[in-house]
Amino acid sequence: MIFIQPRIRINERIRAREIRVISDDGQQLGVISCAEGLKMAKEQGLDLVEVAPKANPPVCRIMDFSKYKYEQEKKERLARKKQRIVHIKEIKLKPNIEEHDYQTKLRHLKRFLDRGDRTKITLMFRGRQMAHVDIGRRLMERVMKDLSEIAVTERPPLLEGRFMVMVMAPK
Predict the structure, then answer these.
(1) Range of the structural domain that residue 42 is part of
(2) What is the pTM of this model?
(3) Do 75 and 93 belong to one domain?
(4) Of the candidates 34, 67, 82, which is a domain's last residue?
(5) Same domain for 104 and 150?
(6) Among 90-94, 119-123, 127-131, the least confident range
(7) Which end of the chain is more exposed for a tag (fewer CB within 10 A), N or C?
(8) Percentage with pLDDT > 90 across the chain
(9) Measured in Å, how far apart are the chain's first and last C-alpha atoms?
């Protein structure tokens, strides 16, 4: 998630004659002249920041701008840290797969699911194998049964042309 910072103008770049001022504790100070708002901000040792330039009159806030920027960057870093990128890993099988090869592919699938990745299992039919789609469906059901303890089937096996595709996600 990316935080989009609102357009903000600080101190001298405020061009409006009259502005609505909000204090640093969130209290509305009313509509006053820009010079008076700048004077109030300087007395407190803070900045006058225009937060809503399109409003009539524009809304300005008295705040420590560098502290505000720091807090926004901190929130952005925290949001980046918390997000998890989910990868989709794909395993390709054929209907006439040998037992050892099947176990190897199953081990890879378990590793992907343990890591938290979604998996796409693609069963490829070649030539006359298309006449025996039922063999492929049984193989996909076997994969579902073997992984039922650690995964859920997001998308059941569907035949798409010469490929049967199924998607599984970790529990």
Answers:
(1) 9-82
(2) 0.55
(3) no
(4) 82
(5) yes
(6) 127-131
(7) N
(8) 45
(9) 24
